[in-house]
Amino acid sequence: MASELHKPGQLYIVGTPIGNLEDITLRAVRILKEADLIAAEDTRVCRKLLSRYEISTPVTSFHEHSPSEKLRGLIANLKSGKVIALVSDAGMPAISDPGEKLVAAAIAEGIEVIPIPGPSAAITALAISGLPTAEFTFIGFLPRRQKERQRALGDLAALTHTLVFYEAPHRLVAALEDLFKVLGNRRAVAARELTKKFEQIVRGELSEITEHFKANPPRGEITLVVAGLAKPASVEKQSSRSEIPPVALSSAKAMMKRGISAKDAAREIAAAMGVSRRLLYNALQR
Asked: Which residues contact 257 (CB under 8 A, 6 or more apart)?
């Protein structure tokens, strides 16, 4: 097969395994071998993969703490005609990942950016969750501080489609407790160590998953998939009467506690749940 690396100054975004080193494409291996340089989030992690596939391409680090000079240096290499392959520690680079800075800078300089698709923990967990997948929102990592985390979750409370989060093991229980507190006891899935030897999928309501990990402190990165806000089966009938579903009222009240006006809260929740905005607003006023 003819080489794809026929043009100067190209940045390849190379998807790598999220755990199992066999989950890499033939194309990804070839590009990593043929590139002039590999920019890796963690060179130690990257070298394990390179050793497995006997890849000797030079490696340099590029992570969230890299100085601006490092970014400028990589762009200068690309502009001089070098071909660089960008990889993250796991999965697709630039997705909740510091590589997005390099991608944006390359595009701004008119450098060709070429995707080499690969695994993604978010999509993998969503696919096996059993929750609706036609519409979903990928959030990435929630804020570390509880107040900021609860505020961020409050902004998501009215969404009716599936939510996908990443979480570190030492913050998992706290995040689950806040998810329960702000979103209610929704169906969810916690996917831990995906594709690895000790892969674990925990399904249930948020309260059940929280209790599980309280009793069994987790290790490894976790992907959380959480059901969206459910529309009550009788919502259309209720909205035509003087009654408002309790979940709509509680969601609107939660928004008001964060400083959102009753009018704006009623409008957002009514649109999300299909209830009468006027009746919900009146209920909030009472």
From this structure: none
248 and 285 in contact (C-beta within 8 Å)? no
What pLDDT does residue 239 have?
Answer: 43
The total number of structural domains in the chain stands at: 3
Give 137-142's long-range contacts (Cβ < 8 A, gap of 24+).
137/161, 137/162, 137/163, 137/164, 138/95, 138/96, 138/164, 139/163, 139/164, 139/165, 139/166, 140/96, 140/165, 140/166, 141/96, 141/165, 141/166, 141/167, 141/168, 142/167, 142/175, 142/178
103: which DSSP letter? Answer: H
Element (H, E) at 271: helix 262-273
* Residue pLDDT, tens place only, 242-265: 567 777 788 888 788 878 888 888
Measure the CA dihedral 217/203/140/155, to 10°.
Answer: -110
Is there a contact between 61 and 40 (Cβ–Cβ < 8 Å)? yes
- State residue 8's pLDDT score: 64
The three-state secondary structure class of 151 is helix
Tokens coding 198: 């000790």
DSSP letter, residue 2: -
Quick: pLDDT tens for 69-93: 999 999 999 999 999 999 999 999 9
Which tokens sit at 5?
Answer: 């690396």
**For residue 5, pLDDT beyond 90:** no
Q: Report which of 93, 98, 110 is spatially closest to residue 70, judged by C-alpha positions.
A: 98
Query: What range does the domain containing 68 cover?
Result: 10-119
Q: Is 194 found in the same domain as 110?
A: no
DSSP strand pairing (162-167 vs 112-116): unpaired
Domain C-terminal end among 226, 248, 272: 226
